[in-house]
From TrEMBL:
Coiled coil regions in record: none
Name of one Pfam family that matches: LigB
Top-level lineage group: Bacteria
Protein name according to UniProt: 4,5-DOPA dioxygenase extradiol
Cofactor(s) listed: Zn(2+)
Domain Extradiol ring-cleavage dioxygenase class III enzyme subunit B: 21-245
UniProt EC number: 1.13.11.-
Keywords of this entry: Dioxygenase, Metal-binding, Oxidoreductase, Zinc
């Protein structure tokens, strides 16, 4: 059975970098069982009604500005997967989650930066999904939980975001990890490993430095979505943890 994954996508420039995290993601793509398809929630696609892509072939979206010119030349021509789109629609409908299909939108950098590192040949079909920052933590988990059976069908479920993602607090040129970011992630690590969903659903009031780490929730909720998809065995494994610019977290969690 495929795991579900939470993967931090960092800054768009990650697509051009060679470091321990990019090497980890490249190796991860080679060591995971090859999926039939990938279902990916991106923090950069927000909607109040759950969106499911039905695109046949994706355009590459450059939803950022001010980065290296080479970034805007990258293409990730992933194919869609009608069978998986239909199955996702069915599962959401069965769970009572309103759903709409989108046959226009391409892949934003929250999706293609991660996918290009995992599967550089773009040879795994993709179904992109939106996130809704206004749901409660429990509701986020239930959205992911609705898709848990996809893992038995060789579909890889990914939540792409970032546990500590506060662009206003970045320390450019810093090689030190900010204590508040580490404090938040250490709390999170403890609650994930013990599968303490009650605490995780109330992270914004219980976790130390939560307001600094998660000023807005759209990058955090893909973690709960991926966790929900891994609800069956309730086993969380931290596969990678590092930081850039003082506090921008680069982490990967596997839920078996």
């Amino acid at each position: 059975m495929m795991p579900s994954l939470f993967i931090a996508h960092g800054a768009p420039s990650l697509a051009l970098e060679e470091n321990a995290y990019t090497e980890f993601l490249q190796e991860l793509g080679q060591t995971l069982p090859k999926p039939k398809a990938i279902v990916l929630f991106s923090a950069h696609w927000e909607a109040t009604t759950q969106q499911v892509s039905s695109v046949a072939e994706y355009e590459t979206i450059y939803d950022f500005g001010g980065f290296q010119p080479e970034l805007y030349q990258i293409k990730y021509p992933a194919q869609g997967h009608a069978e998986t789109t239909a199955e996702v629609e069915r599962l959401f409908t069965e769970a009572g989650i309103p759903v709409q299909t989108d046959d226009v939108r391409g892949l934003d950098h929250g999706a293609w930066v991660v996918l290009r590192l995992l599967y550089p040949d773009a040879d795994i079909p993709v179904v992109a999904l939106s996130v809704n920052r206004y749901l409660t933590g429990q509701q986020q988990y239930q959205v992911g939980q609705a898709l848990a059976s996809l893992r038995e069908q060789d579909v890889l479920v990914i939540g792409s975001g970032g546990t500590v993602h506060n662009l206003r607090r970045l320390n450019w040129g810093s090689s030190e990890i900010d204590a508040w970011a580490l404090e938040f992630d250490n709390w999170l690590q403890d609650k994930l490993k013990s599968w303490d969903t009650d605490s995780l659903f109330a992270y914004d009031t219980l976790a130390p430095s939560a307001q600094a780490a998660v000023p807005t929730p759209e990058h955090f909720v893909p973690l709960l979505l991926a966790m929900g998809a891994g609800d069956r065995n309730k086993q969380a494994t931290l596969m990678f943890k590092a930081y850039q610019l003082g506090n921008l977290s680069l982490s990967c969690w596997k839920f078996d």
